[in-house]
Amino acid sequence: VQLQASGGGSVQPGGSLRLSCGVSRLSLDMYAIGWFRQAPGKEREGISYFDSSHSITHYVDSVKGRFTVSSDNARKMVYLQMDRLIPEDTAVYYCAAAPLVAGVTYRQNTYLFWGKGTLVTVSS
After folding, report:
1. How far apart (Å, rounded) are the C-alpha atoms in residues 53 and 36?
2. Which candidate, 83, 41, 37, places its Cα nearest to that of 60?
3. Is it the case that residue 62 has pLDDT exceeding 90?
4. Which of 50, 74, 118, 121 could bond to 10 as cystine, CB 3.0-4.6 Å?
5. Which residue, among 103, 98, 57, has the nearest Cα to 80 in the 3D structure?
6. 60: burial class by Cβ within 10 Å (0-12, 13-18, 19+)?
7. Residue 87, SS3?
8. From the centroid of its chain, how far is CA 32?
9. Under DSSP, is residue 110 helix (H, G, I), strand (E, B) or coil?
10. Average pLDDT of the chain?
11. Residue 111 clears pLDDT 90, i.e. is over it
12. What average pLDDT score do residues 10-28 get?
């Protein structure tokens, strides 16, 4: 099972982008979707956890208030709306799926399925 992440691109500071994650072969009743990113020269970090089944969403402080996760369960898509982007948001972004039993977590070995990354560049 591989997730499909898309929607990256280049944007100026203050701009917005929406990333999409296709989860066509997974049930959002059984898996949570995490969004991760890896900035140049840094380790990959978790930024958002989304449990559609229990309406649980968690954001790390660096993106809280600027990023929003949503889903279209009928289309089996999960979205990461990124607003008020800053240069520090420049990174390769990934979506990944973890079993719901894990609870809110950013431990990467908890996530069983990963999408290919999509690059977001924030620069003037």
Report:
1. 20
2. 37
3. yes
4. 121
5. 57
6. middle
7. helix
8. 11
9. helix
10. 94
11. yes
12. 94
